[in-house]
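Summary of Year 1 activities. Much of the first year was spent building the evaluation harness for sequence design. The harness presents a backbone, in tokenized form, and records the residue chosen at every position. We chose the following record to illustrate the format because it has been used consistently in internal testing since the harness was completed.
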């Protein structure tokens, strides 16, 4: 399928880095773009091959979105138990027991339990959806037509790499959340131990949440980019995360805006589904028959756009890195790690 690109060693001369073949360098060479330009580029790619991306949405993303929004696979008892433990932990740390605190703990518990119960779907359907979207975007930049047989042949070779990287992504995000909870408990206990009332302890807790939000956003950006890298380059796990950190330098603002837009879009659709489908607050509920599928479709489309923008973001980050490190042997060596299988399949 593809030819390996690497270094040619000689016993009498120092190792030399072989430059990637021209067709490899042509793939993904797009000018650096901001978040709005990445969104426009995503729309352009979607309009160029709508049937492929709509098929991915219908077969892979829509079923997972249905499970996540409807909570059909989630045990409400488990959510309630986790929520009560989080509320108890917050109150014993010195925070006041308010309705907002209960809502936040319930939302966090629902997110954790939902991720745990839907993990098989996330590991299969959603991971396959991300890989197929990245593959399709790479084919677009390579000027190739997406062929299903070639894609599945590639997936058989890189599936272990994708799963291993995804597991590391899950560990990174879980570690970030665990670190946040530990830090929040320590900060609240420290101020509570100094004799401050719960009304005052709220302020350092909010500051901790604000700092965590920035750290969490950066973690999600790095993890999303690492997932794309695991598809297009022959790196996996921690190496993909390190490669992601290197690529994202200078493009953090665009990544944050992409993350913010996707998060707001998903949260908006989730809120509509909660109040228009799950909660019967108007009429006789007959509108659920069409509002439910429509909101699931909207949520699926936001996920599709997020995955496509992550793929475009990878290419613009790589192009920006090539401009900054133009002529540097290290940058050429990293480019040599790009998987040719995705763009040179016959």
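For this record, the design step produced the sequence shown next.
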């Amino acid at each position: 399928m593809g030819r390996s690109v690497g270094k040619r060693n000689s016993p009498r001369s120092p190792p030399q880095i072989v430059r990637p073949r021209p067709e490899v360098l042509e793939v993904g060479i797009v000018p650096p773009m901001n978040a709005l330009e990445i969104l426009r580029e995503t729309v352009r790619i979607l309009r160029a091959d709508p049937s492929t991306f709509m098929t991915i949405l219908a077969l892979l993303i829509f079923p997972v979105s249905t499970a996540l929004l409807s909570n059909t696979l989630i045990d409400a008892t488990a959510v309630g138990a986790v929520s009560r433990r989080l509320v108890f932990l917050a109150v014993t740390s010195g925070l006041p027991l308010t309705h907002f605190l209960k809502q936040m703990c319930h939302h966090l518990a629902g997110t954790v339990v939902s991720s745990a119960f839907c993990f098989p779907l996330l590991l299969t359907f959603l991971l396959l959806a991300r890989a197929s979207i990245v593959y399709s975007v790479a084919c677009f930049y390579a000027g190739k037509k997406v062929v299903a047989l070639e894609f599945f042949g590639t997936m058989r070779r890189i599936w272990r790499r994708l799963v291993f990287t995804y597991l590391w992504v899950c560990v990174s995000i879980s570690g970030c959340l665990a670190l946040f909870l530990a830090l929040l408990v320590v900060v609240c206990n420290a101020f509570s131990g100094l004799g401050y009332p719960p009304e005052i302890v709220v302020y350092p807790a909010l500051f901790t949440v604000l700092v965590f939000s920035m750290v969490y956003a950066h973690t999600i950006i790095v993890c999303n980019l690492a997932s794309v890298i695991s598809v297009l380059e022959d790196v996996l796990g921690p190496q993909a995360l390190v490669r992601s950190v290197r690529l994202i330098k200078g493009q953090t603002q665009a990544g944050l805006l992409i993350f913010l837009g996707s998060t707001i879009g998903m949260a908006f659709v989730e809120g509509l589904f909660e109040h228009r489908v799950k909660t019967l607050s108007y009429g006789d509920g007959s509108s659920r028959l069409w509002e439910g599928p429509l909101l699931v479709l909207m949520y699926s489309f936001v996920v599709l756009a997020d995955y496509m923008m992550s793929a475009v973001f990878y290419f613009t980050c790589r192009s920006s890195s090539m401009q900054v490190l133009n002529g540097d042997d290290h940058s050429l060596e990293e480019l040599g790690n790009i998987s040719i299988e995705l763009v040179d399949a016959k």
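The first strand starts at residue 7 and ends at 8. Quantitative recovery figures across the full test set are reported in Table 2.
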